[in-house]
Design goal:
single chain; alpha/beta; Rossmann fold; Dihydrodipicolinate Reductase, domain 2; 5-stranded mixed β-sheet; 10 helices; binds nicotinamide-adenine-dinucleotide
Length: 270
């Protein structure tokens, strides 16, 4: 039995991850952590996830429970996940990070700390989106530079970072295939007299509305036709299932920084 500790256990994803762990054989809960002062602290984590008491009380200090677990699952905020990664590396615990919105400096720190333990980090843990990453690369390869690429994402009103980590990853993957760097060719929304679209642009657009769990569309626009690929998440459970799958996968790996392409064995395929 793999023992897990969930950081951000009172959050939207944290609760679904707790629920999924409790429903999955081969993995159990050894601890749960929330930020100091969060109403979940002191509560039984099973009650929080609507599963009934499981005898694991939410604490506010990962370093106090980390040694009881083999793997940490963290869906919180970049600075929190970095701290969890530091603790994971120090205590040689595997870690799954689903948090998005890391700055380039914070990503540098992840690349430094991640390989000191076993770390899976991915902006989207759903199987469908990871297949979409592969498909859009292939489409970009075939359609080449003749089609205009636009990425559109939509999320709930509470989401803090924009564009989503998944939209960034889609844009980076396509720009990479086209021999470009998203930081150079990315266009983050448009307003005013922006002039004609440049052939190299990769447009990225973020919609925020209501309780949308997460939609991503990539448009390849040609003359006389367009090709669109869309993924829609109906609930957070597909992300939670992916995170638990990643946790079970990563505990036995050699030290390294991995992503869902590794967990799902999609790397290099297609
Ligand atoms: P949320 O705000 O509902 O949850 C985050 C939780 O982290 C909150 O409960 C918050 O109190 C907690 N937290 C903050 N500081 C903490 C600390 N110091 N210690 C412990 N817990 C702390 O957000 P969410 O919708 O659950 O999303 C969380 C992150 O996961 C976001 O970055 C989001 O983009 C990302 N996400 C990733 C995937 C994926 O598949 N990779 C899917 C959905 C969301």
């Amino acid at each position: 039995m793999v023992r897990a500790v969930v950081v951000g256990a009172g959050g939207r994803m944290g609760r679904r991850i707790v629920h999924t762990i409790l429903q999955t054989s081969g993995i159990g809960l050894a601890g749960a952590v929330e930020r100091d002062g969060h109403p979940a602290v002191g509560q039984d984590v099973g009650d929080l996830a609507g599963e009934g008491s499981v005898g694991v009380v939410v604490g506010s200090d990962l370093s106090r429970v980390v040694d009881k677990a083999e793997v940490i699952l963290d869906f919180t905020a970049p600075e929190v996940s970095l701290k969890s990664l530091e603790i994971g590396a120090e205590h040689h615990r595997a870690i799954v990070i689903g948090t998005t919105g890391f700055s380039p400096d914070q990503m540098e720190r992840v690349r430094d700390l991640g390989p000191r333990t076993r770390c899976v980090m991915a902006p989207n843990m759903s199987v469908g989106v990871n297949v979409m990453f592969k498909i859009v690369e292939e489409m970009a390869r075939v359609l080449g530079k003749d089609y205009d690429v636009e990425v559109i994402e939509a999320h709930h009103r509470f989401k803090k970072d924009a564009p989503s980590g998944t939209a960034m990853r889609l844009g980076e993957a396509i720009a990479g295939v086209l021999g470009q760097d998203l930081e150079t060719v990315g266009v983050w929304g448009r307003k005013g007299l922006v002039g004609e679209r440049k052939a190299t642009e990769v447009g990225v657009h973020a919609v925020r509305a209501g309780d949308i769990v997460g939609d991503h569309t990539v448009i390849f626009g040609g003359v006389g036709e367009r090709l669109e690929v869309t993924h829609r998440a109906h609930s957070r459970d597909n992300f939670a299932r992916g995170a638990v799958k990643a946790a079970l996968w990563v505990v036995d790996r050699p030290n390294g920084l991995y992503d869902m392409q590794d967990v799902l064995d999609l790397r290099g395929k297609g």
